Amino acid sequence: MFQLFTTEDPMDLDIDNESMDLDYIDPSILPQFRPVDARSSHELLLMDLKSINASISDHFQFKRQQRSYRGLALRKSIVRNKPQPLSQSFLSNIDPAIIAMSRPSHREFPIVRMAKLATKPVRFPPGPGVASQPAPQIESQSAPQIRSQPAPDVAGQPAPQIRSQPAPDVTSQPTLTKPLNRSNSGSEELRDAVSNLNIAAQPRLELSNRRREKRRLVEAENAQRKAAEEAAKEAEAARLKAEIEARWRAEQEAQLLQSGTRRIPTSSVFPPLSESAEESILEALAKRPTSQVAKTPSGQRITRRDIGKVLPQAGTEDDRSGWLNDEIIAAYLEMVVAYGSSQKQKQQQSNKSSPQQQQTQTPRLHAFNAFFFTNLAKGGYAGVKRWAKKAKIGGSSLLDVEYVFIPVNKGGNHWTLCVVSPTRRIIEYFDSFHGPSTQVTGKVKEWLAGELGNKWKPEEWSVVEEPGREGRGGGPRQNNMSDCGVFTVTTAKMIVLGVDPNAVSAADMPLQRRRMVAEILSGGFTGGFEPNITF
Amino acid sequence: MSDREQSPGGAANPEEQPKTEHLNIKVTDNNNEVFFKIKRTTQLSKLMNAFCERQGKTMQNVRFLFDGARVNPTDSPDSLEMDDGDTLEVHQEQVGGA
Fold first, then answer.
1. From the candidates A390, A408, A416, A483, which should be mutated to test the interface with B, based on the most B CB atoms within 10 A?
2. Which residue among A294, A404, A436, A483 is least crowded, i.e. fewest CB within 10 A of its CB?
3. Three-class SS string for chain B?
4. Chain A touched by B67 (CB under 8 Å)
5. Cβ contact B97–A483 (<8 Å)
6. Which residues in chain B are closer than 8 Å to A384, comparing Cβ atoms?
7. Minimum mean pLDDT among A189-203, A465-479, B5-19: which range?
8. Are A85 and A65 in contact (CB under 8 A)?
């Protein structure tokens, strides 16, 4: 028998090969079509079809071989797409006329196309052989279907007429028993094949759907995991960034403090006191004058009488003037220095880069008591010769000190502050009355000269004065006859915190007095009194 | 001039003691100087009270300093690492406001 070779769609074969010229097939390689004649032998037609298929396949094979660099892959695809013979039963049931009608484009999907053709109600002119017989059968079966459709739409008259016509046709057919049966079974087989195709396609679709669903799930899971990983990575990066930023900021802060830069803070320097702090103040004020209410970091006792100087109470022995005594000044400066030193130690520990620097025992900050300047003014350097050594800042090691606070009591009634910065070779003088400074700075220079000996180089040192206040003390001004001591110690605290002392004003003084007492009672800037300054 | 006085304890102990046991300490408030001979382990509160009594001062209003460092009543020459002949300064309380 003849074999009709089918090849899968040649377009399909090379669909992935864009470079291959698929649309163009050299006409010379194709055999010439003979004029289609339904009555001519279908064997001949099949021969033609076969040779067409073969030549098309040859053409592509040739083209593939031309592209030798893709040889292996293409050879594989050739094997995969080897032309497959159609089944005998299938061929025998195909109307040769259908085959004859097959156009080159129909050969893309020979089976499906031909099956479609076979189910189409096409009337062929009567001819010899098997071909002519199934046609009426097909027509009679499908005809009512097609014709019944227009029936409701079109007026009732033509429909019954048309329907009545094929009906006798079908009944008249039984005479053609054998060929009818054969063709009938053949068309059924064809239809089965077609429906099988659909049935087969459905589970495949379902399978692919399920697979797609699975893939989607996996993809979603992957995406989720990837997103989580990315989020974690981002969080890690953000954490690192924040850490680096925090470290950088801390370094900047340290550098700013080191450089002596003073800034105006954005937050209040004097936040209001807590209930418990107010309570502790009242409790301490209610004690007898000589009783101890607090201890300084070095263990110096502070009595009720001392805090009464800061917050004088009516009906007590307190001096109502509100003048601070040397005890309170010394205690508060000691607290400031203790706080500043602990902060610097923390920085050094966090840096860990300078353990050898730590073993130089020179404190970075020191505050003398009020009698340092009293002695210095009275007896010159000799009056305080042993003071610096006792404080471990004597001799040349004094130049390693960042700040030395020297409270100055002027005339037994006014507190001022001299700030010496040996590391920066600067002398500053703060006076809330903006009084003359030269006497104080001159005496301090005398002390520096005595202490530093041959390391004293006056040209290196300068007295930093506020513009317009040359020769006079600077800093914020008091607006009464009592607050100078509060300004004095507050200025020292601001300097240690890197805050511009001018950020403090006279209006802050009533609260600062209460804060001072609360802080002294707490024994330092701890337990809720940590200065949290933001710039 | 400062009037040189011996503390009662110092006067009561004229006989020589090992130098490590006792030391002479000068207490001065710039106007008066008082010499004390005390044991190394004696609390300085004794000395401080004696000085205040003698000078008619109250402890609240004076500050005893050794080389600029505040002296507490519980300190002793040992704890302050004092040597023979060292000086304790006495300062009057200072106040200020205006």
1. A390
2. A436
3. CCCCCECHHHHHCCCCCCCCCEEEEEEECCCCEEEEEEECCCCHHHHHHHHHHHHCCCHHHEEEEECCEECCCCCCCCCCCCCCCCEEEEEECCEECC
4. yes
5. yes
6. 68
7. B5-19
8. no
What single letter denotes the amino acid at residue A165? Q
What single-letter amino acid sits at A434?
H
Q: Is the pLDDT of residue B53 over 70?
A: yes
CA distance B30 to chain A (A): 10
Rg, Å, chain B Cα set: 14
A386: nearest CB among B67, B72, B91: B67
State whether A309 and B72 contact (CB < 8 Å). no
Q: Residues near A505 by Cβ (< 8 Å), separated by ≥ 6?
A: A476
Mean pLDDT of A133-157: 42
Which residue out of A309, A318, A371 would a mutagenesis test of the B interface target, given it has the greatest number of B Cβ atoms within 10 Å? A371
Query: Alpha carbon of B55 to those of A103, A155, A290, A521: distances in Å?
Result: 137, 143, 20, 32
Query: A277, A285, A260, A311: which is closest to A422 by C-alpha?
Result: A260
Residue with tokens 């189910």: A119
Say if B65 is an interface residue toward chain A (CB within 8 Å). yes
pLDDT in tens, A422-462: 999 999 999 999 999 999 999 999 999 999 999 999 999 99
Alpha-carbon gap, residue A275 to A320, rounded angstroms? 25
